[in-house]
Amino acid sequence: MIEVIAFDADDTLWHSESLYVMTQEGFKEVLAPYELNGDIDAKLYETEMGNLKTFGYGAKGFTLSMIETAIELTDGRIQGRDIQKIINAVREMISRDIKLLDGVAETIPLLARDYTLMMITKGDLLDQESKIARSGLDEYFQIIEVVSTKNKDVYQKLLDRNGIDIARFLMVGNSVPSDILPVLALGAPGVHIPYQYTWSHEHVELDQDPQGLYRLQNIGQLPELLNQIN
Amino acid sequence: MIEVIAFDADDTLWHSESLYVMTQEGFKEVLAPYELNGDIDAKLYETEMGNLKTFGYGAKGFTLSMIETAIELTDGRIQGRDIQKIINAVREMISRDIKLLDGVAETIPLLARDYTLMMITKGDLLDQESKIARSGLDEYFQIIEVVSTKNKDVYQKLLDRNGIDIARFLMVGNSVPSDILPVLALGAPGVHIPYQYTWSHEHVELDQDPQGLYRLQNIGQLPELLNQIN
What we know:
By secondary structure, chain A is an alpha/beta fold. Chain A has helices spanning 17-31, 40-55, 59-73, 80-95, 104-114, 125-135, 152-161, 176-185, 222-229; strands at 4-7, 116-122, 143-147, 169-173, 190-192, 213-215. Chain A folds into two domains: 4-14 and 99-229, HAD superfamily/HAD-like (Rossmann fold, 3-Layer(aba) Sandwich), CATH 3.40.50; 17-95, Orthogonal Bundle (DNA polymerase, domain 1), CATH 1.10.150. Chain A is elongated. The mean pLDDT of chain A is 96.
């Protein structure tokens, strides 16, 4: 019997990766006039992966990775004003209006009537808090947690800290490795709702869907699935 | 009767601002060969203040503020390799060993026997978590909270979330505006222990010490103060 539904936020409740994709396109335009010693997307991804342990997930680490990528690909020839353009693009990305995904505005209030709703999101603390506040959804969520990473231990700690019984818990998210697999490993069901873009780091191919994994196309299908499970 | 003692972390339990001061000195060395159109310290502080709302407290926002300051003070003439030096200096700062302040290693285990210890720290989530883990102190703290800012509402939420009675709560920290005044406003005592450096933003002059404010020179004096209060 599910009583607590936890949601990822970025790309599950509101658009996020599309903004990163757009900012990355702008980054490529900034670099267009330069002769580069490598591929932008590949070098940026490599830099981001190398920086994850130090700078973590989120917009600020993304900015620093773009700057380092620009310096490296131009052999240090990148101009100061072009680096300023990169920072400005992120500042604009961070302050954009939050666009909820289709079905979220109707489904979340509906579910909040019957379930305890929880939000589990990773990224920069201040940025995530700001997005939550601007989303208008915070009133429906009794528990909101911003974490630096999502793995089995982190979910276990969040369950313990909030006194949640794993047998009554279900997680919903767009990332199989972050939102679904660690929760399945704890014995709870996970509902995967893909987003139109998936950051390579959050992509995983499964030979076969494991038990407890449900796949939906839209959050609007969630109430019916919950009726079936419960 | 105090039962829960909350501690700020940076510059209260371990050295932090001294690393920022050192990194800022290195930043000035990077800019030394350039003709600048303003004062480094003043422009950096102005940039940091302007960025607080977007990038928040912590090392990553500090890095972005240094980069923007360098671009502005050099009218965009800063070289890519010099910007890389700024990022590398922060990367080194983040990964340094944690140096506990005098008296912390003895006092915290002692207090943990008789009190519930809580840590309330602000900054970049991943960076703060990493410092907590590397400090070796986490086993003594039953509650650890990383927040994006510290004001009366934030403290109230932390008390509510952890079921703490304000009448049994005391806060210890090096920043009067962040660690002491908001807690006094809630009616709990605050113990100020100054650090050798105070970031301008965390400095405040008080005409007169308000009721409930205690001042110590060293954390080693805390057990005796608690005996007097309780």
